[in-house]
Amino acid sequence: HGDFAQVTHYDQQPAARLTTFAAEGAEWIHIVDLDGAEAGEARQHALIGELTQAIDVKVQSGGGVRSANDVAKLLEAGVSRVVVGS
Q1: Is residue 7 part of a domain?
Q2: Where are the alpha helices (DSSP H) in 1-86?
Q3: What are the CA-CA distances from residue 23 to residues 19, 28, 55, 57, 60 (Å)?
Q4: Integer distance in angstroms from the first to the last C-alpha of the chain?
Q5: Count of domains in the chain?
Q6: Is 14 exposed, middle or buried (0-12, 13-18, 19+ CB in 10 A)?
Q7: 13 is a domain residue
Q8: Looking at the domain assignment, is residue 20 inside a domain?
Q9: CB-side exposure of 81: number of CA atoms within 13 Å?
Q10: What is the pTM of this model?
Q11: Beta strands at 81-83 and 28-32: parallel, antiparallel or unpaired
Q12: How far apart, in whole angstroms, are the C-alpha atoms of residue 47 and residue 64?
């Protein structure tokens, strides 16, 4: 809900969770760079790239994306669609 004071812990192995989603029939997965969203600049290009390589599902990503360079880095990382913030 956009409240960075709230902390929710998810899987320590996100690739395993994404593999489960794919096995259950997911065609798209949306990954948000919450660090980037909070900072106002993308921060997790490398991790998002690792996750896109770990699964055979299309990935849409956003969070802190503010420039053409951010978009290019995510596309190069294997993301199929990029959500640009304001």
Answers
A1: no
A2: 14-23, 34-39, 45-54, 68-76
A3: 6, 12, 10, 10, 18
A4: 17
A5: 1
A6: middle
A7: no
A8: no
A9: 10
A10: 0.85
A11: unpaired
A12: 14
pLDDT (tens digit per residue) in 69-79: 999 999 999 99
Share of the chain above pLDDT 70, in %: 97
The edge-to-edge listing of strands for the beta sheet with 58-62 is 28-32, 58-62, 81-83
* Residue 65 CB contacts under 8 Å (≥ 6 apart), including other chains: 33, 36, 42, 71, 74, 82, 83, 84, 85
Report how far residue 75's alpha carbon sits from residue 22's, in angstroms, rounded to the nearest whole number. 20
Contact in structure between 6 and 41 (CB atoms under 8 Å): no
Give 3's pLDDT tier (boundaries 50, 70, 90): confident
Q: Residue 33 is part of a domain; what is its CATH number?
A: 3.40.50.720
